[in-house]
Design a protein that fits this description.
This protein folds into three domains: 51 residues; 228 residues, MetI-like (MetI-like fold); 126 residues, no CATH class. Helices cover 53% and strands 9% of the residues. The mean pLDDT is 85.
Length: 445
């Protein structure tokens, strides 16, 4: 009887082992394509890049660690490392902070879903398109760059632009001073006399609409009269230094009467360019035209200059990724137990105290994941830097990824050094990736 009970046990064990082998083989069949793809697209390029980094630019001579030593000794590469460090410190910190702030604020608005959708929309825009958009937005010319158009508009609201930025005094006509002013008369003037101050360099279409034919007023016994005019007749006719028919006055110019180095009277030219100082003592005066009459118009901020190009590109990056950070943090915020928040409110805690002492500590795991994910992404940023930064300041904006491409394919043709840079970039990214993966595993457990 015992034999009939125990005899099937080995057969059942063999059957289980065969089933497990079949499962393993089936698992290998399903995993093999992914492993082959991973090996072809990740493992092989990493190994090849490391091997290539040990050879010279042409790949013919083994140089060992010389390419890695060149990274330390190359000023352009060190600048790229510095810029990458700025990116890693600034961009993820700002994005995480903005995402947290917006996630909390969206809970207070009625149209939270629509608000989140609008902020998340830039994620649907490729870095190429975003780079082109911001390259145009950052243009120095206010007629093309929307940011400088806004800056110039605000500036000109509080500081009037000069009417004649291109005007300059005609030579040998009694005025001293360089282009852009200030100007003053070479000879002194006494009351009872008048002066004519001729200027050139003003295009006809730049003349004020109300400008009239130039005319010098009669000075009077205790007054000095004069006219500031465009000393250029239509067609190029006329005599320099003399008011000819068709020549117009320059209205709105400030003129000063100076005596012993002190301004004693001021006047503004009329539509015909005339001005008049009255009630003057019988003395000698010098007439001056301040530089404010001729200052160049404000052109706005040079966003893509050497000093601001990196912050400007980081601003474009924030525009793209703020929605991503907000949505992830918002998901974590929705999982916070409301009991803790309500209990804190009942105990008299302010919204600021609740945010600092309850919301932020409970969101710490989510904030860490978002921050590390952004660090990984920032280390690989390429498109925005390459597209937005103009050629003359490209080196000032370079990060490791753009430097790697420029060295290898963008004119440097040194794929040994480029491969060494790619290996360095990989070594910098891997710790952050490992940290993130471990956090995901712990949260899943």
């Amino acid at each position: 009887m015992a034999d009939t009970v125990t005899a099937p046990a080995p057969a059942a064990a063999d059957a289980r082992r065969r089933a497990q082998r079949r499962k393993r083989r089936l698992a290998v069949v399903f995993v093999l394509p992914a492993l082959l793809l991973l090996g072809a697209l990740v493992v092989y390029p990493v190994l090849f890049s490391f091997g290539r980094s040990l050879f010279d630019a042409g790949g013919e001579r083994f140089v060992g660690a010389a390419n890695y030593a060149a990274i330390i000794n190359d000023p352009a590469t060190l600048k790229a490392i510095r810029n990458s460090t700025i990116w890693v410190v600034v961009a993820p910190t700002l994005l995480t902070g903005l995402g947290l702030l917006l996630a909390v604020l969206t809970e207070k608005v009625r149209w939270a879903t629509a608000f989140k959708l609008v902020l998340f929309l830039p994620m649907a825009v490729s870095f190429l398109a975003a780079g082109i958009i911001f390259r145009l937005a950052y243009e120095q010319d206010p007629a093309r760059g929307v940011l400088n158009a806004a800056v110039v508009g605000v500036h000109d609201t509080f500081d009037d632009a000069a009417a004649y930025p291109t005007a300059r005094a005609r030579e040998d006509q009694g005025l001293t001073g360089g282009a852009g002013g200030p100007y003053s008369t070479e000879d002194t003037v006494r009351p009872g006399h008048s002066v004519s101050l001729g200027f050139v360099g003003v295009a006809p279409d730049a003349m004020p609409a109300g400008a009239k034919a130039a005319a010098a007023p009669a000075p009077g016994t205790q007054a000095i009269g004069g006219v500031v005019y465009l000393d250029f007749a239509p067609g190029g006719a006329g005599t320099p230094g003399k008011i000819d028919p068709g020549e117009k006055g320059l209205p709105g110019i400030k003129v000063e009467a100076v005596r012993d180095g002190r301004v004693v009277a001021t006047a503004t030219t009329a539509d015909d360019g005339s001005f008049r100082f009255t009630g003057l003592d019988d003395a000698e005066y010098t007439l001056g035209l301040p530089a404010a009459n001729f200052k160049a118009p404000y052109k706005g901020v040079n966003w893509l200059g050497p000093a601001l190009v990196t912050p400007a590109i980081i601003g474009a990056y924030l525009w793209v990724w703020t929605g991503f950070a907000m949505v992830l943090i918002g998901a974590g915020l929705a999982a916070i137990p409301r009991d803790a928040l309500e209990a804190a409110r009942m105990d008299g805690a302010t919204e600021g105290q609740i945010f600092r002492r309850i919301t932020v500590p409970l969101l710490a795991p989510v904030l860490t994941v978002v921050f590390v994910t952004l660090v990984i992404n920032v280390m690989k940023v390429f498109d925005l830097v390459y597209i937005i930064a103009p050629g003359p300041v490209q080196e000032e904006a370079n990060v490791l990824a753009t430097r790697m491409w420029l060295v290898s394919f963008g004119g440097g043709n040194d794929q040994g050094l480029g491969s060494a840079l790619s290996v360095v970039l990989l070594l910098l990214v891997v710790p952050a990736m490992v940290f993130n993966i471990r956090r995901f595993r712990r949260s899943g457990a």
